[in-house]
Amino acid sequence: MEIPGYQPFYLSSVDDLRAELTRLGLTLPVDDDLSPLAQPLTVGSKQIPNRFCAQPIAGGDACADGAPGELTRRRYRRYAEGRFGLIWVEKTIAGQPVKPAQLALHAGTLDAFRTMVREIRAASPDQPILILQLNGDNPEQLLRAALLAAEAGFDGVDLQGTSAALPESLTAIQKRAPDFLLAIRLRVYEAVRGGFGVSATDYRQPDLTEPIRLVQRWQDHGLALLNVTAASPGLRGADRAMKAHADFEIPDEHPLMTLHRQISLAQALRAAVPGLPIVGSGWSWLRQFVPHVAAGTLRTGMIDLVGLGRSALAYPMAPAEILAGGQMDAAATCIVCQACVQLREEGAAVGCPIRDPAVYGPVYRNMRRFDADQLLAGAKRCHLCEAAPCVAASPTRVDIPAFIQAYRQSDESRAYEIIRARDPFPELTARYSPAWLESEGACIETTLTGTPVPILDLQYAISWRARDRGATGVRIPPTLTGRRVAIVGAGPSGLAATVRLVELGYIVDLYEQSDRLGGVPTRVLAAHRQLDPRPEIDAILQPALAAERLHVHFGATLGKDVHWEKLRTDHAAVLLATGLWQERSLGRPHGVLGALPFLESPPATVPDRVAILAGGDAAMDAARAVQQRGAKEIFIIYGGPRSELHWHLPESWFATPGVRAMMSWEPLGYETDQEDHVRGVRLRHADLRLETVVPVELVIEAMELQVADDLRPALALPVRGVYIAGALVNGGASVGRCVAEGLAIAEAMHRDLSS
Ligand code: SF4
Description:
By secondary structure, the chain is of the alpha/beta class. The chain folds into four domains: 14-336, Aldolase class I (TIM Barrel, Alpha-Beta Barrel), CATH 3.20.20; 372-468, Alpha-helical ferredoxin (Fumarate Reductase Iron-sulfur Protein, Chain B, domain 2, Orthogonal Bundle); 484-580 and 707-754, FAD/NAD(P)-binding domain; 583-706, FAD/NAD(P)-binding domain (3-Layer(bba) Sandwich). Helix 2 packs parallel to helix 3, helix 4 (139-152) runs parallel beside helix 5 (166-176) and helix 16 (400-408) packs across helix 21 (455-468). Iron/sulfur cluster binds at residues 382-385, 388-390, 400-401, 443-445, 453, 455.
């Protein structure tokens, strides 16, 4: 039989849709009366207020510990505002997260889930039913997480695990929480040879014998709701026949045939397992005609609930508009462009860049920014300036036009060597430096077009690919100077000095008080920016460790585990690069914290109103962290103009609801209550000389770092052969500047020791 081919959307009326179904020989009811969508549905002891279900799509936007992130919470609030009667919250690991940005429910994230549930319920004009999809390998794990889900306020769970273990899990949960709604989302037809729900003789034909048997068994163990999904077979071509469609491939068949298969499978399950309500999926291609087919399938008893996935991401208000006005706005619907699928495939935060461009447009562009075509297009915009201002503004003085030229000439190895000559940690520098205050801010393209050449993206991509080729390790010189030096502090300055001194022929003892290398970027910022600098650091230092030119001593605090006298006796020179770990403070009543300790172990929740006293590098991370933890109003307070602020987030972040940027307001001190708990920050405007008090319950001080009190005596010692670098000298500058200063001090030490 001729398979009607894939068609982009082309229908302009409900009658067109009816005519097309007839032409294709498909039986799907198309109704003008949409009232079935508004009918409540009772499932177990719960009442779902209407027939719209928001399907689970993993958002990839959870916090490091698995708690819902700000975008996660926003997504579900929007579904609630849009009046979805059933909100099926996405894949959540029962226990600790196994991948970054994945939801995970455990004792440590319970409060954050509880907060999200509260927000969802507050945002909905109805009383939606909330189901949490839980993934776990064993019944005990699922039971524990299901009980936490009930505690967090969910109405039920969707259990995802090995099918053999599910009956036991269903029974155990039902016993402990009899009113809890037990659901399963099941792909009933895998559409590959030997797959689940597939005919033994022709994988292109479903065979529901096994799915029905399983679902009947689960129903006997308490299953109360089934969410049905199915793959589409590759209908043409031997290579396609071996695998199911990837979502971003053009399907082999007409989308109405795909929809018909999805609904028919759901209908078959519904008929075979009476009394088990079914959620039907696969509607997106229909755009504004979704409600007409959905109402028809409900009226004729093919399904019980209409599950919207991508359509819900694009158009979360659809149910509210259909229920109120009987129609959808064609211009707001999902256009099945697959941008959300690309985001998911790339591990980025998932949403609709087309219909929600303010939030997901930047996410999509960010995802694409390291693609070869994007990087090359960016490199081609470089004017290869003489006396380039970008170089002058770059703390490491990397020869930017030279490496961009090499990249344009497809010579990535040379491009890397040009970068490496001035910066041994170019990935770290590229990802943690405030680009607009340094090279990119000075790029002439910033002046000419408003968009700089993506210098740091190019540097980053070239450098990580060099690491992949094994080209980044310390270059071990054949001869030694015969001298041993000590470096205290393994932040960017200490590490840069280490690399240069090893390459100059020294043996280096590196002392670090924590258990890891990298300083503030690794110890504090990595968890908040989801970017771990350690693979780069490890790759660079590994040859020095293997050749015993470098000895790293972790857990070594100056004055406690390691002493000045010993350092001086055992080494030709000592470099002190401990960094700064103490924020400048206006006083520390209860509720006032330094940014670094806050970021190192942030609490699960924060009060509604939080002030960030900004200026230092950790202010942005602190602001993001409090936002993720539920702060409703965040005051970013800074004594100067915004252009001077160390800030890596896009300007648009300041327009996020609840964020108040108070620039040119100098913090003077705190208002406290009788228990010495902070109640407000006293401020004075730098130009207007006005004074005011901003009422807050938490203040995070991130103004600037200063020398820790216990280090001051050591720094006061004028000892020959002792050098100081990094934040102790520059007061906590950018990573690039610390790296540059580490290299410079290493060369100064070498000069002194050679003279
Ligand atoms: S200033 Fe901009 S355009 Fe000029 S060399 Fe630097 S990156 Fe290229």
